[in-house]
Amino acid sequence: MSDPTSNAVLTSADIPDELGSAAILPGDDRYEQRQSVYSTPGAPAVIFAVSSVDEVRAALAFASSHRDLPLAVRSGGHSIAGASTNVGGIVIDLSDSRELTVVDEEAGIVKAGPGLPSGLLLTGLQERGWVVPVPTFGDTAVGGVATAGGIGLLARSLGVTLDSVTGFDVVLADGRAVRADKDSEPELFWALRGTGATAGVVTSVEFKATPLPEVLSATTTVAPGDRIADVLYAWAQAAQQAPREVTSAFLANRSKDDGSLRVTINTVWAGSDSPEAQAALAPFLAVDAEAVGSVKTVLYSATVFTPGFPHVGKRSAIFRNGFSPALDRAASDALAELLDHPEVTTVNLRGFGGAVADVPVEETAFVNRSGEYLVSVWGAVDRQDAFESIWSTVRPRFHGVYAGYTDQTDEETLAAAFSDAVRERLARVRAEYDPTGLFAHTPAVR
Ligand SMILES: Cc1cc2nc3c(=O)[nH]c(=O)nc-3n(C[C@H](O)[C@H](O)[C@H](O)COP(=O)(O)OP(=O)(O)OC[C@H]3O[C@@H](n4cnc5c(N)ncnc54)[C@H](O)[C@@H]3O)c2cc1C
């Protein structure tokens, strides 16, 4: 977990006029609902609720003249590591920046404010029959997702969210507003796709949407009891053998009521119903003789959960992950056995590969593109030491880390999330775009 703190106290007298209405100080009615993020409590000295480029520039100027205070940048506030809040510091909060505009109707190019929740991006696109691949949790916002990765149920067919980004509008540490795309500031464009607020503040994200008016969605639920290892292995085989139109997510956890195991499998075929689609989904419905399943045609947005939860800053679990080659029987047994331990609350596996692996690794700073699955294991927060020791028994089977889905920001995690080549290249980008290290407080990459 990141822990940027200071004892600073600011008053309205410290706030420049141009930020007067954007500044939220402790005691303000708006403070309580913005001080924390999804999983981390916070108590910033000031939150700047900014929408315009000028306000972002003014907030960065304020941060530049208060270098002793931690700085955090926020869009949707779902950083699992708590990177988008702090104690006694400055938060530049773009969560109100939610506009969505069509830039080029022919080419399917759209521009979104960084605070737009990814589920609402989808509902905004659906009247045109367009999609952008997004996380399965739609409250996550465009600004954080498009700079971290974005792994969801279209990953194998359309890639991660940042693979659909065609450009960013960015305000740099010195206040310059630039456009970063493949032709303009290409190194900044590279860095922003994977390392978050390490070189600037994104004020809008441009995507190329893909026409996909409907998907075929299969849901499977099982109470596997002691057949959990067989069910997990059957899913892993199905996911690995599936055509790239199919992406599936496997979630196993124990009921808090009676301790029984529950498995939910959500699978999407990126297209309309057809015999081929039904055949591709069938193995996911047949992972167990007692599995209960259903298949229906829906909008892609219906497969994304967008409840609009308020941020209460409650750490719900310990989050660890890695990428896995095809799971053999021994590896899937090892994962299933984790669920025998009360310290492990959830095993969450996502189908990976396909379109994700088509993108050359040097093209973006999101470099962990090999592997058949993203493996996430969640632990009980009150049993951290025991959980760490159990996780360490399976960790060597996996490689890399998805930085957007872990609460760790230590050196070992960053080295696993970003290769040495990425970190060296990023150091050069930061030297050019943030030479005084204004964003050095942001924990994504040091
Ligand atoms: C309940 C939950 C479910 C999730 N499910 C998934 C999932 O299915 N798939 C998946 O891929 N991920 C998932 N995530 C992880 C999530 O996608 C990432 O944490 C993402 O970065 C969140 O973006 P945000 O804008 O909501 O969060 P924020 O906390 O606002 O931002 C996250 C990071 O991005 C940086 N950042 C935010 N806005 C900007 C900006 N405008 N300019 C520059 N940098 C910025 C922040 O500084 C921070 O480091 C989940 C997270 C949670 C809490």
Notes on the structure:
With 446 residues, the protein is of the alpha+beta class. The chain folds into 3 domains: 21-93, Uridine Diphospho-n-acetylenolpyruvylglucosamine Reductase, domain 2 (2-Layer Sandwich), CATH 3.30.43; 100-212 and 420-437, Uridine Diphospho-n-acetylenolpyruvylglucosamine Reductase, domain 3, CATH 3.30.465.10; 215-416, Vanillyl-alcohol Oxidase, Chain A, domain 3, CATH 3.40.462. The protein is 26% helix and 23% strand. The protein has helices spanning 32-35, 53-64, 118-125, 142-148, 155-158, 186-195, 228-241, 275-285, 329-338, 355-358, 384-394, 411-417, 420-433, and strands at 23-24, 46-49, 71-74, 90-93, 100-104, 109-112, 130-131, 165-171, 177-180, 201-208, 210-211, 215-222, 246-254, 261-269, 292-298, 318-324, 344-351, 373-379. The protein has a 7-stranded antiparallel β-sheet. Strands 5-6-10-8-9 form a 5-stranded antiparallel β-sheet. It has a 4-stranded mixed β-sheet with strand order 1-2-4-3, covered by helices on one side. The longest helix is centred in the middle third of the chain and has 14 residues, at 228-241. The two termini are 14 Å apart. The site of flavin-adenine dinucleotide (FAD) has 38 residues, from strand 3, helix 4 and strand 10.
